[in-house]
Structure formats: structure tokens, C-alpha cells
């Protein structure tokens, strides 16, 4: 994927096997300028590298 692309997943758990995996992948995507879109579940929505989406993923990761 390249900067400006969007990775779309059905649910957050399709992105990684554990919360740690999901956070690591999401941080990597954000650092490379790649947006993340989650279609279903409690975190459904689009998270852009320029927005506050990364904070939401961290908050969810802390609560799990």
C-alpha cells in the first residue's frame, strides 16, 4: 500500500489476532500515511492518518 491508500477490513479482529497486533498494524499504517476503514463492529468507521482515529484505536485497545 502507498500513502493516501485506505485499508478496508470487515471487523477490527480481521486486522490482527490480538489487540497488540491490531495496534501495531494501525500505528504502522498511520506512520505510512495509510487510512484504515473498519466496516462493522464497535469501531466501525474511517480513521485517517490526519485525524484522531489512532487515539480511538488506542483507547479501545486499553479497554480490551
Put the structure in a nutshell.
With 64 residues, the chain is an alpha+beta fold. It contains 2 helices and 3 strands.
Helix content: 25-40%
Q: Count every helix, treating DSSP H or I runs of 4 or more residues as helices.
A: 2
Strand content: 15-25%
Distance between the termini: 28 Å
What sort of overall outline do the alpha carbons produce when their principal axes are compared?
Answer: globular
How do the SSEs run, as a string of H and E? EHEEH
Give the total of beta strands.
Answer: 3
Q: Main β-sheet, in a few words?
A: 3 strands, mixed
Spatial order of the strands forming the largest sheet: 1-2-3
Mean of pLDDT: 80
Q: Give the uncertain stretches in residue-range form.
A: none
Structural class: alpha+beta
Based on CA atoms alone, the radius of gyration comes out at: 10 Å
Explain this structure.
With about 60 residues, this protein is an alpha+beta fold. Helix content is about 40%, strand content about 15%. It contains two helices and three strands, in the order E-H-E-E-H. The protein has helices at about 20-30, 55-64; strands spanning about 5-10, 35-40, 45. It has a three-stranded mixed sheet with strand order 1-2-3, with helices on one face. The longest helix is centred in the middle third of the chain and has 13 residues, at about 20-30.
Amino acid at each position: 500500500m502507498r500513502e493516501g491508500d485506505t485499508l478496508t477490513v470487515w471487523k477490527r479482529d480481521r486486522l490482527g489476532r490480538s489487540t497488540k497486533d491490531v495496534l501495531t498494524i494501525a500505528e504502522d499504517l498511520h506512520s505510512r500515511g495509510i487510512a484504515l476503514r473498519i466496516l462493522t463492529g464497535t469501531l466501525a468507521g474511517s480513521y485517517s492518518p490526519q485525524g484522531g482515529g489512532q487515539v480511538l484505536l488506542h483507547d479501545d485497545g486499553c479497554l480490551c
